[in-house]
Amino acid sequence: MAEFRFHHGGVSVPSLDEALDWYGRVLGFELEQRFYIKGARSDTAMIRKASLRFELFEVEGAAPLPEERRVPNTDIRTHGNKHVAFCVPDLECFLEEMEAKGVDIAFVVRESFGKGCFIRDCAGNLIEFIEDATP
């Protein structure tokens, strides 16, 4: 099988400037590159935090995120990409930090099989964080 590795995830947002601010202020991403994709009519940015990359798209005339895509339990009822997930060493500390920053916390799971949460970015897109204390 051909080898491959993860490069980035992509998120469509209504305001690129607002998303750049949110992803930087809330999650610590930094702007790596900003460019325009003529064929997609998209003001675009690649953001980075260590080895993690996200591509943010502000597309002219894009439809808003449907309400059911803003809730984890209803989002999975529609086929397609759902979300990205990141590991945090301590979910409770992470939640405290997100609450202090005024982040929209969509869903928290504290079960015998594990702990995690979903937050919404400034456009309502879901991002999952899972507690994983392994180094």
Automatic annotation (TrEMBL):
Pfam families: Glyoxalase_4
Matches recorded under InterPro entries: Glyas_Bleomycin-R_OHBP_Dase, VOC_core
Membrane-crossing segments per the record: none
Gene3D superfamilies per record: 2,3-Dihydroxybiphenyl 1,2-Dioxygenase, domain 1
Domain VOC: 5-132
Protein name listed in UniProt: VOC domain-containing protein
